[in-house]
């Protein structure tokens, strides 16, 4: 059996077992915790260069199977890839302009998959973004409620204010802000499935007079300064580097002088925004978030500043997102039979890898997530903010 493997593979010491299509097995270490079952004979030759994109794609396409926990499989496959693949210094991505049709199609691909599928593993409010673990012992529901509260406190929401929620998802934050802080909310999404369920939940809570959710592109927002506060959670990852300036300028024109803008989203490890190496970024682009682009924190703060907003606070929540994704992955793994009834087999394979892989990526610093709070100063430069941020955490 050993002779069938490329020489580079024979020298590895990993907690990995390789089982071939003919039943032959080879252990790369004394106590394998993961087994890769190769179903496609042509795949063995490609194992001399096992990029994360290659391994992930082969699993999605059914060319290989994984035995063992999905999180352990991610860890071991990363070790395999590290041993044999150079972490290529990818060039910065080209700045490709995103039009409305492209963005709508990309959003629909990801978010219109199945509301029932998302409900299997998200919290009760279906917050599809990083939770906030104040002690580390919170349940997923508690962490998402804490995240909503943190966002509202950073925005210093007051009863009667008008809040714009850009990329409102299933409406959890919009309902929370209206219910707990007494604000009026205008939320937008490009996902028809999200909007349908979000409106049902608004009606169920009797918040129709406070929460208005619409299918709308951010480029079609009113830009007359009518909003007191703006929040954008997990949305600007879809904007694209070439569109960031326009995105920030639209938010700047939509908020009144003295108002606040909160941008909460995933950011790149690299200052030029290039993807994570060894094919992980390629896999995400192909199967999970088509046309998604992650800017670095410095790139985003520069665009916010050029748009006439002043950055007043930045907080990284990277380890909070690692824990959130661990919750999501574990919840999905516990409900695989139910999930298989909601989405096609290939989609389920994609999501199993995606959730476990992203938990690993955030834990290891491959990507980050930042809350960037900015304000639109008055003409004389004055701000409507307290001198410290102590009130946020009181």
UniProtKB/TrEMBL annotation:
Its EC number is 2.1.1.79. The active site is at 358. Transmembrane segments: none annotated. One of its GO terms (molecular function) is cyclopropane-fatty-acyl-phospholipid synthase activity. It is an enzyme of class 2 (transferase). Signal peptide: none annotated. Pfam families: CMAS, DUF7884. GO terms for biological process: lipid biosynthetic process; methylation. It comes from the Bacteria. Residues 12-79 form the DUF7884 domain. The keyword Membrane does not apply. Keywords: Lipid metabolism, Methyltransferase, S-adenosyl-L-methionine, Transferase. InterPro entries: CFA/CMAS, CfaB-like, CMAS, DUF7884, SAM-dependent_MTases_sf. Belongs to the CFA/CMAS family. This is C17 cyclopropane fatty acid synthase CfaB. It comes from Pseudomonas fragi. The gene is cfa_2.
């Amino acid at each position: 059996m050993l002779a069938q493997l490329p020489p580079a593979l024979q020298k590895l010491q990993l907690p990995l077992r390789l089982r071939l299509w003919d039943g032959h097995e080879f252990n790369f270490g004394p106590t394998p915790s993961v087994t890769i079952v190769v179903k496609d004979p042509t795949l063995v030759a490609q194992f001399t260069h096992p990029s994360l994109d290659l391994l992930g794609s082969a699993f999605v396409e059914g060319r290989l199977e994984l035995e063992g926990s999905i999180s352990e499989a991610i860890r071991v496959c990363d070790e395999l890839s590290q041993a044999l693949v150079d972490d290529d210094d990818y060039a910065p991505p080209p700045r490709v302009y995103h039009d409305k049709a492209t963005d709508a199609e990309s959003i629909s691909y990801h978010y219109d998959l199945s509301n029932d599928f998302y409900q299997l593993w998200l919290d009760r409010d279906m917050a599809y973004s990083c939770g906030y673990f104040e002690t580390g012992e919170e349940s997923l529901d508690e962490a998402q409620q804490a995240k909503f509260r943190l966002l509202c406190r950073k925005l210093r929401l007051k009863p009667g204010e008008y809040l714009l929620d850009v990329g409102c998802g299933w409406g959890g934050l919009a309902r929370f802000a209206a219910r707990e802080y007494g604000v009026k909310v205008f939320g937008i999404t490009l996902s028809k499935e999200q909007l349908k369920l979000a409106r049902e939940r608004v009606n169920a809570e009797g918040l129709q007079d406070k929460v208005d959710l619409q299918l709308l592109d951010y480029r079609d927002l009113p830009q007359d300064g009518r909003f007191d506060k703006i929040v954008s959670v997990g949305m600007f990852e879809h904007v694209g580097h070439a569109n960031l300036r326009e995105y920030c300028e639209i938010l700047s024109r939509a908020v009144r002088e003295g108002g606040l803008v909160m941008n909460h989203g995933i950011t790149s490890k690299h200052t030029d925004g290039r993807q994570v190496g060894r094919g992980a970024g390629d896999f995400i682009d192909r199967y999970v978030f088509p046309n998604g682009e992650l800017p670095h924190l410095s790139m985003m703060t520069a665009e916010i500043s050029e748009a006439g907003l002043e950055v007043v606070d930045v907080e990284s929540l990277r380890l909070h997102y690692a824990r959130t994704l661990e919750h999501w992955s574990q919840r999905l793994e516990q409900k695989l039979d139910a999930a298989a009834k909601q989405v096609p087999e290939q989609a389920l394979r994609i999501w199993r890898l995606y959730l476990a892989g992203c938990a690993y990526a955030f834990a290891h610093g491959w990507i980050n997530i930042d809350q960037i709070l900015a304000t639109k100063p008055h003409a004389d430069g004055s701000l409507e903010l307290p001198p410290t941020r102590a009130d946020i955490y009181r």
